[in-house]
Every structure is written in structure tokens, then in C-alpha cells.
Amino acid sequence: QVPVVQSGGGLVQAGGSLRLSCIASGDHFSRVALGWFRQAPGKQREFVAAVTRDGSTKYAPSLGGRFTISFDNAVDTAHLLMNRLKVEDTAVYYCAAGPDWDDFPYWGQGTQVTVSS
Prior knowledge:
- By secondary structure, the protein is mostly beta strands.
- The protein has strands at about 5-10, 10-15, 20-25, 35-40, 45-50, 55-60, 65-70, 75-80, 90-100, 105, 110-115.
- It is built from no helices and eleven strands.
- The strands form two sheets. Strands 2, 4, 5, 6, 9, 10 and 11 form a seven-stranded mixed beta sheet that branches.
């Protein structure tokens, strides 16, 4: 098992910023990559961004460079900094951990991000 614990989120006005954080513990090779996904009401869950422990990153093209994901090895935590937030960014955001980019078997509890107009 790889427990995944998220923090951050909340309510922000459009144009503002929020930071989400995620810690995955347990077997090292099961948490090489940490990713963020989101699910808006009535929509399917979608990929947002992912980072590996060596600092490699990838993003959903639709974000337009507004989000930045990073990994702090000192505290074993991944951060997702969301800038210039839009109403359409409103969703439940989930952190997930896995052995590589395409395999995320371990999931956090989800956190609500609401962007008001």
C-alpha cells in the first residue's frame, strides 16, 4: 500500500492562485511518479499534470502553462501551483502515485477547488 495524502484547495476568485500538495509514503518504487487529476461535475476525470522524483514533468496541453508541478525531495512532497485560475478549473482534484507516468494505482482522497467569477 502507498498512502497518498493531499492538502490545499478551497475557494478562490477567477484570476487568483492556489497550491495543492501531495505526500505519498511507503514502497519507493510504487511512488516514482506523482500526478494530479481532476473531475468536474458531470464530466470524466482528466489528467492535469505529473512529476517524477528526478524532476521530469508533463502537463495537459489545455492548461496553457498556467499550472506548475514540482517535487520537493527534502519533504517528499509534490506541489501543484495553479495560477490565473478560471471558473472552468472548478473540480475535485486528486493526487495519485505510481511507478511511472502511465500507471497510477494509488489515489488520494480528493480536494475541492472552486473558482468563482
